[in-house]
Amino acid sequence: MNHDTTTPNVTLHTAATDTAPVTGAAHASDTPPTMRALTQHTLGGPEVLQEVRLPRPAPGPGDVLVRVHASGLNPTDWKHRALPGLFLPEPPFVLGWDVSGTVAETGPGVTLFQPGDEVFGMLPYPYGFGAHAEYAVGPARAFAPKPAAVDHVQAGALPLAALTAWQALVDTARVEAGQRVLVHAAAGGVGHLAVQIAKARGAYVIGTAGAPKHDFVRSLGADEVIDYRQQDPSETVRDMDVVLDAQGHEHALRSLRSLRPGGLLVSLRLDDRNAELVAEAERLGVRARVMLVEADQAGMRAVADLVAAGDLRAEIAGTYELADAARAHALGDTGRTAGKLVLTVR
Predict the structure, then answer these.
(1) What is the pTM of this model?
(2) Which of 29, 36, 138, 246 has a CB 3.0–4.6 Å from the CB of 268, allowing a cystine?
(3) How many CA atoms lie within 13 A of 270 on its CB side?
(4) 122 lies in which domain range?
């Protein structure tokens, strides 16, 4: 990992480049003009990541500047690091959407928080990236108070993955007590949180995972765990009210067969074949929806309530300092981690 202590002459496609002072902002007196950040100048493998110094962003109207303590990694991070044609423009950019930290400044019009408040949240996905740095800017209403019962590593692991699971199961599928829910990739970042959320809603939960992860998935509350390497759940699991699928188009098509008549599959993979998935669901007498996670303060507060009640906790697969982010990305690239990888920034 290169550690460049100079400020490079780059323009980042993110709010992290806005350093103009904002009239009416409330701030902490020790906020520095520059910050450490993880950036890249080209797409590629983990080796393209660099820790550099960049101008510290400033909050605009309705924004807060958060001093980042921890930031979770998600599959969208390594995909955007490596692949062209996704949501983000060409690099250079600072990746990251998960934030847990302390409010350093508030922009004009912000009444929910003040400097010193501990918060966690997801920068607006997909275009509000920039969390893998010492400071990040986002709308005040993208954040919620950090649950006092957990530290910043735990809180930093949750936002994007927990919001995805909450919005899929609660806002979209409206899971209720007694319903049957199938969660694919139940040991993964979204999946292991989805199992817990579905159980908190009173559902009967079946998860899919490789055999070495079965005990882990059961510890989350799953009622049954299926080894997808030994059997195809689409051939053996039936009469589900809800299926949560993040595997992709062909897998989602097969998973429609696991639903009861009128049941709902929620896919987390945007694809140019999504219309085909919806049409096939209608042909089979079931439903399919494709969901993209959104910044959502009500959802973050619901996640915080579950954490405070002891019903939701992220499994931390590993923590890495900002300068070690390439190692975390390399591990994420394998697709074999259980739970979440987290960057510790402060």
Answers:
(1) 0.91
(2) 246
(3) 8
(4) 2-158+314-344
